[in-house]
């Protein structure tokens, strides 16, 4: 019998089917030992030789190139201030103040007593004598002595000597008549040892400034009561 010859399309289809059947059959026949064998994967290097030459470029140059090419939209534009100079005298700004407050202030002593009044001096005397009594010492500190004591502290702030006792020495280069005639050296040191502003037996343990708290509170109210003098007056 004569069979019709197959067309090229049918031949291609038959070959493809045979190839797939052979591939599937070969996979099924692979030995398990072959699957456990380690393999090596080799990647083909497609990198151009020109790219590898960039390894010799310093990182600082690469970073400089990147920063120069990056957008600078986030940078703030600096506004240059323009000053107009005027040749003229300074004009003082005088704040309003109550003239009645200053009419009674005739000198430095009166201004000092405005802040360290008799009530505050008496409080210092009371607390200092109380502390001296707790230490079994004499309780005979007087009001005028506390005023002289504070005056010596203020005076020694701008007339300084290497040692405090030199203010009472008879040497011409250190002796100070104003201090020596207002309070004796021993009396000053006695008050210095027992000066107190608060009762040690009744202190707020949580307040680190409890011993000087009465001074802060007193001066705070006095600063509010007496307006400050402007430096331009």
TrEMBL record:
GO terms for molecular function: sequence-specific DNA binding. It comes from the Eukaryota. InterPro entries: PGBD (IPR029526), PiggyBac_TE-derived (IPR052638). Coiled coil: none annotated. Residues 108-231 form the PiggyBac transposable element-derived protein domain. Pfam families: DDE_Tnp_1_7. This is Transposase IS4. It comes from Popillia japonica.
